[in-house]
């Protein structure tokens, strides 16, 4: 099936869900999946070109915390706070990205630098607990009891935020396709193959890599800000830190990094899996033996790690990529027969 048609069908189904009467809990899950899909799409925009970041949890935390802090302490509406948060995330991406790209810090070394960024941001949030609430989390102040367009708060009606989340998801698909069809894609693919050869033919290596990194960081920060506005609660463990960064990578690898729908499929699998594990295990310890026990909160990360290894070995293109390859192989004999 054509990818554009597939996306159109999915969008039409999602648009109709509230109209046919979906319960509050499934609607909540879909909203969360749509918001996280945008974050995963933001990561895949740069990850597909070999720029493997393990620090996108930092950008997501910046988006959520800057927006909430500006609202609580300065009274700035999220309509102002979110752009400021995106600017902060972009600046952080430049501060980290420019030296790395300028001095050819690539591959595993770049991944380690971004991993350190994620943990630094998390530790800063925890250390400034008098302002950010630390590890206990942070709650944006409510603006009255009902709706508030100014505060972007819709606590009594999930339908409103559902359509907002759906618009965010669709925007992520559009951005992914625009990058995929732009000249920057060819430049970044050339850079991922050979930086020296790309520079020799006139490609501005540092600039191109920095542009896509900033775009990816801004998208992830926006997802963090919108997640904060929807849940009205954030913490270093829910939108920041190494755990979230690894979850982002896992979801994109599972879904498919080279397809616009890959991050969405990854979000569905990742978040539903986490929900199932939460209901099944809860927060109690999971004991393998009388002496070996694993904290219930750490089980999803263990499962993610095992599945990530398996997918990298057996399905390196992810679920969407594997399905696409299978369909192409199935259609190939018929095509050759027609030519014969």
Describe the structure in brief.
The chain is mainly α and 340 residues long.
Q: CATH architecture, please?
A: Orthogonal Bundle
Strand order of the largest sheet: 1-2
Helix content: over 70%
**Quaternary structure classification:** single chain
Rg of Cα set: 21 Å
Order of helices and strands: HHHHHHHHHHHHHEEHH
Largest sheet: 2 strands, antiparallel
- Name the overall outline: globular
CATH fold-level assignment: ABC transporter involved in vitamin B12 uptake, BtuC
Count up the domains. 1
What proportion strand? under 5%
Using the coordinates above, name the CATH class: Mainly Alpha
Strand runs, count: 2
Structural class, by secondary structure, is: mainly alpha
In the predicted model, the low-confidence regions spanning at least 5 consecutive residues are: none
**Terminal Cα span:** 24 Å
Structure description:
By secondary structure, the protein is an all-alpha fold. The chain has one domain: ABC transporter involved in vitamin B12 uptake, BtuC, CATH 1.10.3470. Helices cover 74% and strands 1% of the residues. The chain has 15 helices and 2 strands. It has helices at 3-16, 24-47, 56-74, 78-102, 107-127, 129-132, 158-180, 183-193, 195-200, 205-231, 236-239, 241-255, 262-281, 299-314, 318-339, and strands spanning 286-287, 293-294. α2 crosses α13 (262-281) and α12 (241-255) crosses α13. The chain starts with a helix and ends with a helix.
């Amino acid at each position: 099936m054509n990818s554009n048609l597939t996306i159109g069908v999915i969008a039409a189904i999602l648009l109709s869900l509230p109209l046919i009467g979906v319960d509050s809990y499934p609607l909540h899950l879909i909203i969360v999946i749509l918001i996280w899909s945008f974050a995963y799409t933001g990561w895949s925009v740069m990850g597909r070109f070999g720029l493997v970041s393990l620090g996108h949890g930092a950008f997501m935390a910046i988006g959520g915390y800057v927006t909430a802090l500006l609202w609580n302490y300065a009274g700035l509406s999220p309509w102002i706070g979110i752009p400021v948060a995106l600017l902060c995330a972009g600046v952080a991406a430049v501060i980290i990205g420019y030296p790395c790209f300028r001095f050819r810090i690539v591959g595993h070394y770049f991944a380690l630098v971004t991993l350190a960024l994620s943990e630094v941001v998390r530790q800063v949030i925890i250390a400034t607990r008098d302002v950010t609430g630390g590890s206990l989390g942070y709650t944006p102040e409510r603006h009255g009891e009902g709706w508030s367009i100014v505060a972007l708060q819709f606590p009594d009606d999930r339908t409103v935020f559902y359509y907002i989340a759906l618009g965010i998801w669709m925007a992520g698909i559009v951005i992914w396709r625009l990058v995929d069809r732009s000249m920057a894609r060819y430049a970044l693919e050339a850079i991922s193959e050979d930086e020296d050869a790309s520079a020799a033919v006139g490609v501005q290596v540092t600039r191109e890599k920095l542009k896509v990194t900033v775009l990816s960081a801004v998208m992830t920060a926006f997802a963090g800000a919108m997640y904060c506005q929807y849940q009205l609660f954030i913490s270093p463990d829910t939108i920041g830190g190494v755990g979230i960064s690894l979850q982002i990578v896992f979801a994109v690898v599972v879904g498919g990094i080279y397809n616009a729908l890959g991050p969405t499929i990854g979000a569905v699998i990742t978040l539903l899996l986490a929900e199932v594990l939460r209901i099944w295990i809860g927060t109690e310890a999971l004991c393998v033996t009388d002496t070996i026990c694993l904290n219930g909160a750490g089980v999803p990360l263990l499962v993610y790690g095992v599945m990530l290894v398996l997918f990298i070995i057996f399905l390196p293109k992810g679920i969407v990529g594997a399905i696409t390859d299978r369909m192409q192989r199935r259609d190939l004999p018929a095509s050759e027969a027609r030519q014969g």
